[in-house]
Design a protein that fits this description.
alpha+beta, Beta-Lactamase, 6-stranded antiparallel β-sheet, 6 strands, 35% helix, globular
């Protein structure tokens, strides 16, 4: 198992291309989703300057906080509530350049300015979401969306 991640460039596409093979090596044959979520969050934090990275897992009619990197967070989010609940309800990634302009945004931290939330599917149902927050406006773009969606499809295959 690797003890740290290595990146050869600050170029976003290159860093993503280097990240997945390192995650595959880090996680190896680990089957526990909590361990895998924790390492995914830590790896994404190491590869980025994002403010908060974490998982929420569907439990009944709520998303419940799972492993994360960053300051304390909301523990539970309702179906269709905020950016995470909307990603769950619509079964679609939410790319939000300005959270203040998102109707019903839940401010777990007043420092968050933009957000990317990607749903994770198991048996064609939303199993959970990966939530990523930035302290800067419009941090995330189509490249981030594509690469994080690809990462979450890979992770879903481990569930």
């Amino acid at each position: 198992m690797a003890e740290q991640l290595f990146f050869t460039s600050t170029d976003k596409s290159t860093r993503y291309a280097e990240l997945l093979p390192q995650l595959e090596a880090l996680i190896g044959s680990e089957q526990d989703p909590i361990a895998n979520m924790a390492n995914i969050c830590a790896a994404l934090k190491a590869a980025s300057n994002w403010f908060w990275i974490g998982f929420y897992v569907v439990r009944g009619n709520e998303l419940v906080l799972g492993p994360f990197q960053g300051p304390i967070a909301c523990s539970r989010i309702g179906f269709g509530k905020g950016v995470c609940g909307t990603a769950w309800q619509t079964k679609q990634t939410q790319l939000v350049p300005d959270v203040a302009a998102f109707p019903g945004h839940i401010a777990c931290s007043a420092l968050s300015q933009s957000e990317l939330v990607v749903p994770i599917f198991k048996d064609e149902q939303v199993w959970g979401v990966l939530d990523i927050d930035s302290t800067e406006l419009a941090t995330f773009d189509a490249t981030d969306q594509y690469e994080i969606e690809k990462l979450m499809k890979w992770f879903a295959g481990l569930l």
